Amino acid sequence: MDKSVYQADEDEIQALEEEIRLLTEKYEDLRQESTFFSDEEILKSIESFQRETQGETKGHESPSDLKAQLESLGRDLSFFMMLTGFQFTSHCKKTVEKTENRTVQKHRLSGKCHSLPFQLEFQLLEMPNNEKVSAVVSDLSIIMESGEDPDVSKFVSSTEENGSLLTFFRSLSAYAEWYEHRRRTFLHFK
């Protein structure tokens, strides 16, 4: 009995230490990201944001209008999640380099597609080109539980080499949908 109490306490301590580590890491990321901007740039951004917010609130008739718009966006998001099967659970963005003609950001994204969990980590290089911004994905790393299907690990390796996020999301959506159908079918026959 005493060992189980101690083990539960140890587990809780480890969970709290892990949470502290994650929060410290997130704090350091935010602090590092904010050091890329000068005080002038921060003040300009704050003023610009305040002007935009004041302009947006003047354009709307009432808070109920905003609430209706928010509910509409929520319904749209639910529809897209139902349609694609994707549900994103976390996203972390860290600016690695920011210059006048290029920005490099590191993204960490996790979620589920139907019942298959996934994690992505990649760098995004954005460069302004005339009036457009071109973006290039590099250092793509995908973490998925392949289970007993070797084709999934081949697909993940191929996608990491190509660095194509669009291919990953399209293929994962189709695979996860059929994976879910197979899982339900096998449960039905058990």
TrEMBL record:
Coiled-coil region list: 6-33
Leader sequence residues: none
Keywords attached to this Swiss-Prot or TrEMBL record, sorted alphabetically, are: Coiled coil
- Entries under InterPro entries matching the protein: CENP-P
What the entry lists under Pfam families is as follows:
CENP-P
Taxonomically, which superkingdom?
Answer: Eukaryota
**A GO CC term attached to the entry:** nucleus
Biological process terms from the Gene Ontology for this record are: CENP-A containing chromatin assembly
Q: What is this protein called?
A: CENPP protein
Give the organism, scientific name. Struthidea cinerea
Species lineage, top-down? Answer: Eukaryota, Metazoa, Chordata, Craniata, Vertebrata
Name of the gene:
Cenpp
